[in-house]
């Protein structure tokens, strides 16, 4: 049987469903809560405060807040196949079967061996990591182990497997209202009534905001939540409104691009497989209203982090919303009126309010009188100077306090308790405003930073704007929403502001929202240190750390933040930032406005990587492009390689063949009989228009204006800096129609570059470019038998093949398929590139293979293609070139026209530095040992015995075993390489083996005269 | 992420576009007498102002058309979008055009026909 | 001499490598709410022409080309899309693009225009059903609200990691055009993203 919910109230005022109990497990023990509970409220219902150990000191920590501001209650949820760390217990809704555990404790929450860190706190002062890294490296090795064990928040699951589904959703709206509290609801209603497309999003499980947690106010003569329920009902019924709950507006970016993380199934016991765990909304909103509310600040005193101490607003929220009384003997510590309502709530719920301790000297409010009349001990001008306890707060010191001098004036009295609720004033949630570089203004009256509303795109209202009184907030929401809609009306005809808009009425709140800013309560006792007065609970940063940082010379708020790590934990300083700035300002003797504030950056709360990745994982991580012959390659056992996004047949191993044997067979067959390569991935561009020839003349280094119709020419394309950009064969199909091919990987880049030139540089040229890469399937047939095979395949005029000179093109039919056949070669053999409309690609390929069988035709892949071209010394752009290689470096002077007036890269090639003799130039390498293959990318040196660092000569760009030469061959880019032919170089190896010895040679290894090619 | 108003397709996300960097870099004429150093002003040197910058963008995922825009590099506000081959029309855009050091560079002078008489 | 079979003569389409139909839906759903199928061998001509030749091209192709960029008109047999100030895409009934190309190539304005057959370069997928907009909005950043993207509108944009042209035929009927080499990616993406609503993908017919 699970333990009793000893702290659950009888009253049924909240949002939990008493009819439905929910079983869950925490740290191995079974508990029962109710539907609507968060893990935090359910644990508190059992009187459990202690839920975690702190980051650095492993101090016991309890539930502190009631929402996303929670710094302490980070827990790990165990799913059947994985685990999720660092979820906030205050936001996690419980469901049947939930298994959660505490974090940062070893071996258990109550006994934590690492809590000895607390006693060694002097090891972890401000700037700990910076200082540690400054120590001798040898010491760091020793400390690292220790720190790794102690530091970090939570653990990820071991196999990193995340079985859940995450969705992305793009959306557009006229208005996003971030936050579904009173102000947000009112703003959304005004906008929705005008016909605008409205999205209202709130991170909680239901709309209502603070109204859900308070019963002190009326709106329009009804309890505030009744008003809210009506508005919510209305909004939900409107087709132009989307109400999103459990949705955190995580980031606000340029032009109102908003990221929202919606938790879809996290709270459900049965998570249906087709629903995503989370949905990441990518929203573009015309206007944004920020109604993100405010977060209460803690007060800073020694021992303020003990379990049993929480924010006053949270304590009240647990009473009203979850029917949970978090503590029965309560101390209230405050500097404003609001916490008195918490005292009242505890009193009315049957708790014993031992004392209300108010820092203010002589506050006058109705609520104080009310409390005194109830017999509650209210001590004004007093402070809680310290809290004591081991695993839970057990007593506090209360003393008369001089806020001017920051010290107690009389000895403290000791008072026992089991609960302390504190309130240090409110901080508007300005994160989304600040993310957009919105400025913040310090408001002395309310002691908070509020947003400067200057933007036309977004505006803050209500508590988020420092307007804490309900009545004023509702009126502000109405006015701001009306003016935002008026602006939209001019852009969008469908939107029309209603003529009369009623502002909801509420009795003017008498609450005094002028807190007395006391940033640090000093105990005045030498034995009580402010090293346990915590500012940032999650990162274990104390008041002492901030003071130390100042003593060590850090005065800028940005520096102090980083040095002390205040505000840098997963909660991003939601409860700590302003207190830290306050203490810093006091220490520096400056005002807060002078001290300034840090910038908030997205996301507002941690967003899971799974949500960010969405569907772009696994097989959908990147598009895989395949050719029309892909199914044949697959059926014939091809191994594939990725070339850009393309999946190309790499080699076709037969049974028992290893990689090298396969390549040797494919290369040998192509040189001696015939080989067939799927070259469909080559980029293809149709160049049309009267100025096509002139255009090509300007983009290639060689002459294309003179290219006769039906002829092909190899061209080299440079960028304006003279470096090789792409290469390929271009054929003139008619006077004003050229068919350009590019490298497979460069296709998109080449088309973009040519378009750029046409549109931005040469607008006078009439040329149209169309990508036809996928329009044509290409089978490249090469080898001594290529001609015979082609002839056997020709369906009509077979004599076409007889009269087919090198570098020409024929428009004909092959096996009844319309085809463009090019007699060009990348293997150095007699070769034909057969282009057919892609729908016939597979038919052509299968047919060629069938007919070619008697001619010993062999399919070869990209690896054999590489070997074949390397034997011939043909370059591959991107392998022999890397953006720093000119045609001269490749020893391709012949391709650079001396006659043409201009082409892209011409002037750059003429720079004196381009003729520098020690530029890296392309050469061939022959290893001394014919069987030793140099690793590609390896560096070559002249003297391997030179003292380190050895001077590099250059690198190996391509390296293979050539079965035709029965010798390893390589191409390399070496300094002054063209004048080094005959010299010996060494290639040092990483793995300690002997350097490979090689001779510098001409990069054409095979058929230097090109007789085979011309046939 | 910026919202960019493509002159052809209208408002689209920045991810659909590619930025071509500084606009109005004129290519020197063929028969220029520029030294290597002066030519490098055209080839390599790019402005990077704090404030209004005139840039070229291409709607890569959409109509594939190039256009110019004037953008504030501090606020990311796009002040105007205007066609390739034309000058900015806003006062801020014009000012940025004139303020660019390139207007006084030898490389730019070498991009204009010599005969042209400037009034 | 070996002849290629009749089947081969028709040729393959972008999704021929896949065994279709594929149905993806949660067990809780009785029917699928999205239908996807390839419009096999749909004729596609990319035409570049300036405004002065536009009407002639329109007459020769029996299309109304007085369109703004990202607009389309026509249905079923012949649809014209404007892709840019001087660029059009004509979708024509299977096989009819050959004659269209011939007509244009033999016209006297051919020197002023450019006609490129891209029937095999691009794949047309038909997407229909009441959840199509929800499906597309998972990967497409443009505003797909019926008020913003309605009949006769088209958009060149990204769908997940593929570049596509979306054409709205009716409120819940779309054509999605992508490069053929991306067709399998688009199919797989749609199947995964459409699972939630129930999706059935079929090969389409010739």
Helix coverage percent of residues of chain A?
A: 10-25%
Distance linking N and C termini of chain A: 91 Å
CATH class of the domain at 166-294 and 428-491 in chain A: Alpha Beta
Low-pLDDT regions of chain A: none
Fraction in beta strands of chain B:
25-35%
CATH class of chain B: Alpha Beta
CATH homology superfamily of the domain at 166-294 and 428-491 in chain A: FAD/NAD(P)-binding domain
- Please summarize the sheet with the most strands of chain A: 7 strands, mixed
Helix count of chain B, per DSSP? 3
What is the CATH architecture term of the domain at 166-294 and 428-491 in chain A? 3-Layer(bba) Sandwich
Helix share of residues of chain B? 10-25%
CATH topology of chain B: Folate-binding fold
The backbone outline of chain B, from C-alpha atoms, is globular
| Strands of chain B, total number | 6
**CATH superfamily membership of chain B:** Folate-binding superfamily
Q: Which two chains have the most extensive interface, and how many residues on each?
A: A-C, 59 and 53 residues
Give the C-alpha Rg of chain A: 38 Å
**Total domain modules of chain B:** 1
Number of strands of chain A: 50
Assembly annotation: heterotrimer
Total helical segments of chain A: 25
Give an overview in words.
The complex is a heterotrimer of chains A (1015), B (119) and C (206). Chain A contains 25 helices and 50 strands. With 1015 residues, chain A is α+β, with helices and mostly antiparallel strands. Among the domains of chain A are: 17-118, Roll (Ubiquitin-like (UB roll)), CATH 3.10.20.440; 166-294 and 428-491, FAD/NAD(P)-binding domain; 298-424 and 513-528, FAD/NAD(P)-binding domain, CATH 3.50.50.60; 530-598, BFD-like [2Fe-2S]-binding domain (Arc Repressor Mutant, subunit A); 683-771, Alpha-Beta Plaits, CATH 3.30.70.1400; 912-1014, Beta Barrel (Elongation Factor Tu (Ef-tu), domain 3). Chain B is of the alpha+beta class and 119 residues long. Chain B has a single domain (3-24, 32-109), classed as Folate-binding superfamily (Folate-binding fold), CATH 3.30.2270.10. Chain B has helices at 36-43, 91-99, 106-109, and strands at residues 3-6, 10-13, 18-22, 52-58, 66-72, 78-82. In chain B, the strands form two sheets. In chain B, strands 3-4-5-6 form a four-stranded antiparallel sheet, with helices on one face. A two-stranded antiparallel ribbon of chain B has the order 1-2. The radius of gyration of chain B is 15 Å and the shape is globular. In chain C, strands 1-12-2-8-11-10-9 form a seven-stranded mixed sheet, with helices on one face. Chain C has a five-stranded antiparallel sheet with strand order 4-5-6-3-7, with helices on one face. In chain C, strand 9 (154-159) and strand 10 (162-170) form a beta hairpin. The two termini of chain C are 28 Å apart. Chain C is globular and about 60 Å long. The interface between A and C is large, with 59 and 53 residues.
